[in-house]
Amino acid sequence: MTIAQTSAPVGTPIANGTTALERFGKIERPDLSYTPEVAEATAPIYEKVKHIIPAIEWPALAPTIHAINQLKKQRNAVILAHNYMTPDIFHGVADIVGDSLQLAIEATRTDADVIVQCGVHFMAETSKILSPEKTVLIPDMRAGCSLAESITGADVRALRERNPGVPIITYVNTSADVKAECDICCTSSNALQVVESFGVDKVFLIPDKYLAANVGNKTDVEVLIWDGACEVHERFTAEELRDYRKIEPGVKIIAHPECPPEVVAEADFAGSTAHMIDWVKTRQPEKVMMITECSMADNVASETPDVDFIRPCNLCPHMKRITLDKILESLLEMKEEVVVDPAIAERARVAVERMINLKI
Length: 360
Ligand code: 13P
Ligand code: SF4
Prior knowledge:
Layout: H1 20-24, H2 36-49, H3 58-75, E1 77-82, H4 87-90, E2 96-98, H5 100-109, E3 114-118, H6 121-130, E4 135-137, H7 146-149, H8 153-162, E5 168-171, H9 176-181, E6 184-186, H10 191-197, E7 202-206, H11 209-216, E8 222-224, H12 238-247, E9 252-255, H13 261-266, E10 269-270, H14 273-283, E11 287-291, H15 295-301, E12 308-310, H16 324-333, H17 342-358
Parallel strand pairs: 1-2, 1-3, 3-4, 5-6, 5-7, 7-8, 9-10, 9-11, 11-12
This protein binds 1,3-dihydroxyacetonephosphate and iron/sulfur cluster.
């Protein structure tokens, strides 16, 4: 997969003629032994992940977690991690965790010099768009997204030409190039409210045809689609959910709105990754099934010990490119730096800030 990105390859000099490593300086590689000091410093973290990481594996992970946490201080860096990160990242090194909306908002609030985005490329680009003065790193530049891949800025321009006057809302899962061409951005947390905020009878919600259909089912506004889909969520089927209900009587099923509408119709609740987590924490169901990416259940299970998680899930191969080892390299070598053409970033920022300013 190629990423429709505006980022520079590793080590490429950027605007002021320097690489991030030249600007921030070299740091000596840490010793990655499992010393008593490391064991003590990481013990509170292990408490949070012990349900999912066997004790025998901890000595292999703890030194890297400890080294990353030390390096963050040295680099004045903050780690923003999406809810789909693995528990070692989510509980071990992240400063802020959340869904796409929460991460976008936090990117505007941090006073760190460096943002390490543990998520996929469009998320790192969104952080850079909102914080152009900060150095934004992504541990693996290849972490893409099938939705972001499905549409280009030129596609949006053509759509606008063919449909004059129809507002175009872009899901945050798109490149900066696409955001720059759209009227406003949305996430799965606020898509319905953004659609209704225009007060018109017809809008485009691109590029996820399922999110658009799910929002369309909840409003009188006609929601026009683009033919994109999330390769992870489109694999779930309503039949599969009905079968699980037979095998696991009483199970509560909660789904992400990137799933097809017939899957959402079978679920007890649908919402963004953050809304799904809140739902489980607030309702404390006896048994729950999260119809989404696999790490979600792992991450929330430690905070809800009384909930039994039934775990059918699909892995997002892009999210899974982000690993502890790559985060360590990222902070040591100050790579891979995400840069967005300032002219594109300025226009894309308007779309993202309009969404944030709606405060929904
Ligand atoms: P959320 O905004 O719900 O976290 O979704 C992002 C995403 O990529 C889900 O597949
Ligand atoms: Fe993209 Fe789907 Fe992966 Fe989310 S889960 S990053 S929408 S491919």
